[in-house]
Amino acid sequence: MSSGNDYMLNDRLYIIPQDPETREALLNVDRATKEELRLKHHVFVDADWQCNTIANAYIETIIRALGLDVKNTGNSKASWNCYGLFNAHVTVKRNEDAEKEGNINIAFDPEEEITTIIKDSAPKEQIKYDVITPEAAYSFPNNGPLNEAYKKIDQVARMELHEKYSITIPDNWVVTAVTVTFVRNLIRQLLYMVANNGKAAASINFNDNIECHAIMKNDGVVITLRPGMSAKLLIKSDEATEADEADDDE
Q1: Where residue 71 falls among pLDDT bands split at 50, 70, 90?
Q2: pLDDT tens digits for range 85-104
Q3: For the chain, is the Cβ count within 10 Å smaller at the N or the C terminus?
Q4: At what angle do helices 144-165 and 50-73 cross, to 10 degrees?
Q5: Cα separation values, 131 from 45, 83, 87, Å
Q6: Which of 112, 119, 110 is nearest to 223 (CA)?
């Protein structure tokens, strides 16, 4: 199904890792994401590192929202599922000092979609895509509350991208589409690395928010996701979120 819309992202400021190996790996992910967005969603991203920056803002929005949830409501089971790729959730240390924010942390648990990517051995250039709008692909039309929660995260990330990185994205769900596509290609890049570097393991540090690891074992590849230092600090911070300011009708 064609959307009839072309989304052009023309911007100036980007997140670029300094470590040469990480930079090479994430640039491959960034470029693969741009190509998939063009084919699948008619989303056109011009410059390198835009997708990396957009996905990073979205993930950081999730981390802040989870941290504020547990601090403001005491919800020690606060979680958020990234479209079946991974589940982000808070962890709270249980002892007499549990009220201290230093005991709040975050974890990322791989979900079934990553297993599907591992099992799919087709080269990415052979993947055939049906064109679908970001809204049709990532919204929840039959679940109003869930739809509003995910749309608000998308909107808050868009606000941060505009204010912090001078990236303007006019439509809902485009940030979500970029992020989900980026994470999928991040896993594919890990699989490529572990299959071609002659070693039993490979890793990519996603902007110090998620440390992604692939380990080759007898029964196949295992993917693990660990919180980076930035994520650990962000989940503990009292940084205000813009979620309450996001306009649902934007």
Answers
A1: confident
A2: 999 999 887 655 444 444 88
A3: N
A4: 120
A5: 16, 18, 27
A6: 110
